[in-house]
Amino acid sequence: MKRPVVAFAGMTHLGLVSSAAIASAGFETICFDNDAKLIVSLAKGQLPIAEADLAELIKANGARQKFTSSVSDIARCDVVYAASDIASDAEGRSDTSVLTGLIDLIVPAIPPEAAFVVLSQVEPGFTRALKSPPLDRRYYQVETLVFGRAVEHATKPERYILGCDDPRQPLHPGLKVVLDAFNCPILPMRYESAELAKISINCCLVASISVANTLAELCEAIGADWAEIAPALKLDRRIGQFAYLTPGLGIAGGNLERDLATARRLAAANGTDAGVVEAWTRNSRHRRDWAARTISREVLARKPAATIAVWGLAYKENTHSVKNSPALATIAQLNGARIRAHDPVVPISAVVSPNVEGFGDPLTAATSADALMILTPWPDYGRIAPADISKVLSGRIVLDPYAVLDAGAATQAGLCYYTLGRRAVRAT
User: Fold this and answer.
1) Which of 160, 184, 208 represents a domain boundary (last residue)?
2) 100 CB contacts (<8 Å, ≥6 apart)?
């Protein structure tokens, strides 16, 4: 068969990254969004998101990746993805209205022989409940978007999980050609299994995160060091070298929280037990507030109007997203403190507080502050010498939950250094 032409509808984070990956594999790729202004910006190389290597990949794709606001361009495509981001509220409930509106818009333009694939994350039952296209051409593909590493995961996928009406039947030939180009396992399964597979993956990640956070906190109390323990776990075949065992400030970003909330709702609706999921959620919220608890105890208890420098506002490094950001949650709890903040990507307008001032340079933000909190592990922060931090800080306390700085160098510079998974090291 001729090489398929692939369309992606919805030029949000998921659609942009996924379409760029498909185009990089040599496929002509049509990128549709009905926001004409967005399409004009994308055609100029102006991206609405921060994602490592994405701009370079799109530029390298050149004419293979075409941006359009004309839905009629989908009519010549062999495989059509619906790939808009799915927003969730504070309780982890998904809003699929944008996706359903997009599907209603593009389905009339899809050729009768083309495969249609829902790539956006949806709850079990969504794909089968769609009225069209027919079941034998309708698929659900589990998305692999990892903020900050999305291009790597999209261009080098570990596997494809594909929901079908009948997984025993051959895949649509055009879709199979596209997926085969990435030389990884393809796992066909019924729609509901694929939709629940994404939630299952995230629950396993949350379990690892919860183990790391629970035991790392115990290390802080008894004098053990989690950084010494984690390598031993990775050498256990039952856990593995790629286990998610780095402690952090709870679960952030939105997707993991959404899947926990979905699992709780499905369990409640079907009379199954989700107590462990509720425990993971409580553990995450407890760990998220580590920085606020520590800075309140060590600084604000004696100086309520202290000046606190905050490096990092994004929920993780290499992304612009502040969805459920531990940094913003921490700042919201520091009533009365003056905040001097820096983030290399996120604008200060993302912080809703009159006591926050933004700076374009991290050391300037730290100047004359009573303490520093590094709440997003941007690589650039790790390249700043602790001695330089010590020179500009008024106080001595540094909270570095992700161990961006070298602990030994920090204490040698006269700083009181706090990180996750080990006891605080106080300068003498």
Assistant:
1) 184
2) none
Q: Quickly state the pLDDT bin for 147 (edges 50, 70, 90).
A: confident
- Residues in CB range of 293: below 8 A, 6 or more apart: none
| 84 CA to centre of own chain | 15
**Which of 347, 245, 321, 333 lies closest to 291 in space, CA to CA?**
333
Q: What b/e string do you get for 394-428 counting C-beta neighbours within 10 Å, with b at 16 or more?
A: ebbbbbbbbbbbebeebbebebbbbbbbbeeeeee
Residue pair 10/49 in contact by the 8 Å Cβ criterion? no
CA neighbor of 263 nearest in space, from 145, 128, 123: 123
The reply to whether 411 and 397 lie within a common domain is yes
Residue 10 reports pLDDT greater than 90: yes
pTM of the model: 0.82
- Report in angstroms the alpha-carbon separations of 371 from 151, 172, 393: 36, 58, 7
In whole angstroms, what is the distance from residue 71 CA to residue 60 CA?
25
Q: Domain total for the chain? A: 3
